[in-house]
Amino acid sequence: MKGINEDCDRLISNQKNLLDTIPEMVLLVKDSQTIEFMNPSAQSFFGNLCSSNDSMTSQEAKQLDSLLFIVAKTINDEGIGETLDTTFGESHLEYTLAHFRGYKGDALHWFFIRDLTDNKNQLEELSLFHNSIETILSHKISDLKESERMRRSLASELNSLKEHLKEQPEEGKMVGSSRALSELRDMVFQVAKSDATILITGESGTGKELVANLIRESSTRNDKPFLKINCNTISDSLLESDLFGHEKGSFTGADSKRKGKFEVVDGGTIFLDEIGDISARMQAALLRVLQDGEIIRVGGNSPVQIDVRVIAATNRDLAGMVQDGSFRLDLFYRLNIINISIPPLRERKDDIIDLTTHFIRKYRKAFKKEISFLPQSILDRLLLHDWPGNVRELENVIQRAVLMAKNNVITENELFFDTVTQDNEPVSQSSHLDNIDGKSLKSLVADVERDIIVHSLQKNRGNVAETAKLLDIGKTAFYDKMKRYNISAKDHK
Ligand SMILES: Nc1ncnc2c1ncn2[C@@H]1O[C@H](COP(=O)(O)OP(=O)(O)OP(=O)(O)O)[C@@H](O)[C@H]1O
Ligand SMILES: [Mg+2]
After folding, report:
1. From start to end of 265-337, where are the E strands?
2. Which ligand does the CA of 426 lie closest to?
3. Residue at 262 is within a domain
4. Is the pTM for the entire model greater than 0.70?
5. Same-domain check for residues 187 and 333
6. How many domains, the chain?
7. Which one of 173, 174, 233, 471 has the fewest CB atoms closer than 10 angstroms to its CB?
C-alpha cells in the first residue's frame, strides 16, 4: 500500500513538473466547485485560486466564480473535449475541458486554457489594415474609373471638336470673335442637334444663310437632303406646287402627279429663305406642315405625313407684320420656336478685323495676289464705316480692293464702299464668287473689272480722265475698256 502511495505521489509530482513547464494554462477542477491545481501560467493569469475562499481577494473570488461558471456551462452543454472560446474580462481565451479521474478515484476535470488576446488583437489589426487597404484600393479604383470616364468624355469632346472643325471649311466658316458672334456660334451648335424649327432674323448680308448652312451641317440630318428655297423668287402657285407637289390635272399644265420638295426632302432639312414674303395661302399650308407634320398636294385632299426640319430666314420684321395683319400669328409662333437673331455688323465692329483678314485671304487666293499688308489707315476707315450692307458689303469692298491692289498693298485708292440709295439701302452687289461655277477666270475677272470701272466713274461723277488717273491706267486704254464693257460716262454724271 505504501508502495502504491509512493508510486502515486511520484506520478503526481512528475505530472506537476511537466505541467509547470508548459506555457498554456492548466487547471484541475474538482466537482465544478473548487480548483485543485493551477500551473504557474494559470496562476500568473488568474492569481492563486486554489486557496480557501476566505483567504482570497474579492477580485480572485470573482475570477474563481467566472471560471467555475465556464466549467459548469461546458459540462452542461456537453462541450467536454471540444476546443471552445470565451471572453474573460478583456481577454480572449481558448479552452478545452477534459475528464480526469484522480489517482484517488475523484471525478475531476482538466481545464486547459490558452490566452489568444494578443492573437485576436493582431488579427483585428490585420483585418483593419486589410480593410483600410481595401478602402484605399477601392478609392483608387473609383478614381481610376473617374479618370477613365473623363478621358473618354474628353476624347469624345475632342472628336466632336475635330468634326466641328472639319464641318467648318474656310468657305463656310463663321468668322468673328466679338462677344455677340461667339454667343451666336454657341447657340447655333446648341440648337443644331435638336429637330426644332428655327427662325433666323437679321438685316440683309448679316449671314443668315451661312448660319442656316452651319445648323444643317452640325445637325443629325447632315447626311440627309438639304433644300434651299427662296420664297420671294417663285410665284405663289408655283411655290405651293413646288413645295407640296400636285395631283394630276390640278392646274393647267399639271399633266401628271408630282411630289413636292417637302416629300422629296423627307428626313432632311428645308431652308425657307425670305419667309416674310409668302402669301396668306402659303402661310396656311406651311402652318399645317409645322403643326401636324403633313402636307396636302395641290389639287389633292388626303394628307401625306412628312418628316422635315424647317429653318426659315427673313430680314423683315415678322412681329411687326403680325401686328399689321400680313403674317399669321400662329405661323409666327410655330416658326419662332427658336429665334437666332444676327446683329448687324455696325453693332459688332470687333468682328471687322477678323472678317477683313478672312476675306483678304479668300480673295488673295482666288485672284492669285500676294497682298500682305493692310495699312492702319484703311483699317480705321473700315472700322468707321457703318456697313448698311453688313458682312456682304465688307466682303465686296475687300474683294474689289484685293483685285485692284498694286504692290501687294491695299490703299485708299482701292477702297470703294457700296453705293447707297436714298433710303440708305446698299445697292445689292452679290459677291462674284457666289456664282463662279462654269465660268472662266477671264470672264470672272472681266465682271469684276466692269464693276470697278462703273464704281469709279460714279465716284468721279463720270469724269473719265480723273477716273483713269485714279485707277492708274492710260486714258486710251480706259476708253477701250469702257467700250468693251459697254459703259457710258454720261450714265454716271
Ligand atoms: N461671320 C461671317 N464669317 C464669314 N463670312 C460671312 C459671315 N457672315 C456673313 N458672311 C458672308 O457674307 C455673305 C452674306 O451672307 P449671307 O448670304 O448668309 O447673308 P444673309 O443674311 O442671308 O443676306 P440676305 O438677307 O441678303 O439674304 C456671304 O458670302 C457669307 O459667306
Ligand atoms: Mg440670304
Report:
1. 269-273, 294-295, 304-305, 309-314
2. 1
3. yes
4. no
5. yes
6. 4
7. 233
Q: What is the CATH number of the domain that holds 428?
A: 1.10.8.60
45 and 144 part of one domain:
no
276 CA to middle of ligand 2, Å? 12
Q: Is 268 in the pocket of ligand 1 (CB under 6 A)?
A: no
Whether the CB of 175 sits within 6 Å of ligand 1:
yes
Q: What is the mean pLDDT of the chain?
A: 85
100 membership: H or E segment, kind and range = strand 91-101
CA 274–ligand 2 middle distance (angstroms) = 7
How far, in Å, from the CA of 208 to the mean position of ligand 2?
6
Which of 328-342, 344-358, 386-400, 415-429 shows the lowest per-residue confidence on average (mean pLDDT)? 415-429
Ligand nearest the Cα atom of residue 433: 1
Q: 32 CB less than 6 Å from ligand 1?
A: no
Same domain (yes/no): 106, 137: no
Say which residue, 370 or 107, is predicted with more confidence.
Answer: 370
Question: Cα(36) to centroid of ligand 2, in Å?
Answer: 113
Helix (H) or strand (E) holding 85: strand 83-88
**E strand residue ranges, 236-329:** 245-246, 258-259, 269-273, 294-295, 304-305, 309-314
Q: Are residues 206 and 123 located together in one domain of the fold? A: no
Domain of residue 160: give its range. 118-167
**What is the CATH number for 86?**
3.30.450.20
